[in-house]
Design brief:
This protein is an alpha/beta fold and 497 residues long. The protein is 48% helix and 21% strand. Strand 13 (301-305) and strand 14 (310-315) form a beta hairpin.
Amino acid sequence: MSREMLLLAEALASEKNVEPDVVFEALEFALSTAAKKKASREHMDVRVEIDRHTGEYRTFRRWLIVADEDYTYPDLEKTIEEIQEEIPQTTLQIGDYYEEQLENEGFGRQAAQTAKQIILQRIRDAEREKILNEFLARKEDIVMGTVKRVERHGIIVEINGKLDALIPRDQCIPRENFRNGDRIRALFLRVDEQNNNRKQVILSRTSREFLVKLFEQEVPEIADGLLEIKEAARDPGQRAKIAVKSNDQRIDPQGTCIGVRGSRVNAVTNEIGGERIDVVLWSPETAQFVMNALSPAEVTRIVIDEDSHAVDVIVAENQLALAIGRGGQNVRLAADLTGWQLNIMTVAEAEERHAAEDAATRALFVEHLNVDEETANLLVQEGFVSLEEIAYVPAEELVEIGFDETTVDALRNRARDAILTLAIASEEQLDKVAEDLRTLENVDQDMLRDLAQAGITTRDDLAELSIDELIEITGVSSAEAEKVILAARAHWFAEEN
């Protein structure tokens, strides 16, 4: 039996191209499983140890040493006190194993068949692990494979004829159809652990990184460091935008990426299901980058609000539809590309909005600075938009626009008094806010003050607001406003359930 064991291990290791230790470990597991079934030891922990040189093997029953409070399974565990009674001078500690040697069991036909199945399965798992490790060692970003089968949950792709990978349904480009045997390219995304302890390679065809890597393959100037793709945004299968930058002034980044008669960009487009790709010029200047990102629409004017991280984009009436795009696609991709919230409006809408803001500012100055309309209008025309600016701007700036020093001091003092009065009123209003609103997730003190000032004092008051109303009150981004509104409405759905 011992010589047969060694010959079997050697033959299997050579045939399956795995390490001999893998085969021995599989044999040990198979023998322990068969021993448990043969001797009705299913509930015991049985270990088999094969001598790598002689092929002889020994069978052990073992128990895990645990503390008294953790003692649960007598067939598998012993307490440290039990071990100390049996072996007074023991050095075993909690977490170690106590073993007793058993007589090796003879194996019949059924046991041998079970052992064979276990060995083959273990070897297949080892083969799969080795192939996976070899694949990961190559560190490939773009993977080329063959469609093995198309399933409801995704596409199974065979890589190098050995490794099966999965493109999940949500990582497939919509309306793309593949048949068995088709060649396919995708981006290596990650390795997932499955319920059966197997590892599954996950690929993607929808990620923006896939688009970037395809351009890197098609445009050698990127690999050489002469060009750089700074940002990318995708609506998979429909449209994409990439922002490119040249590190060599002699190279046109857009023309280089597009290629002669569009050869390079068309090659990428054909690979991703006909997805239209806009190549735009990256700029460190926010205004210029936004204008480039909205291409092919022409932008008339841009107003940047750093505090709310938003940009008002003013376009001519005939450019409005082009700037927004079908279903808002163009502005959505441009916002994703630039990282700014983009508000598209016409010149007329911008003027109307500007007039409303100026009127609100004039009313603020008339009320809190005790000045007439003419004086308030002068301050607005000079660019003052808040009481804080008037209170803390250098006095020389106010003198320069025509005020004498006495008037300047009066205006500054009134502005400071008004700020203090409004702050006190805000704190008093804040005291009226209910506890359920104070403790709501994603609602900070600044937002609470804005809400309280608008008369929103309870969670239900907030829940009844629309996202646009919350943005108007607080100035937060649409994504943040959506999170807050959903959190405020969560208890409604909980009550329904």
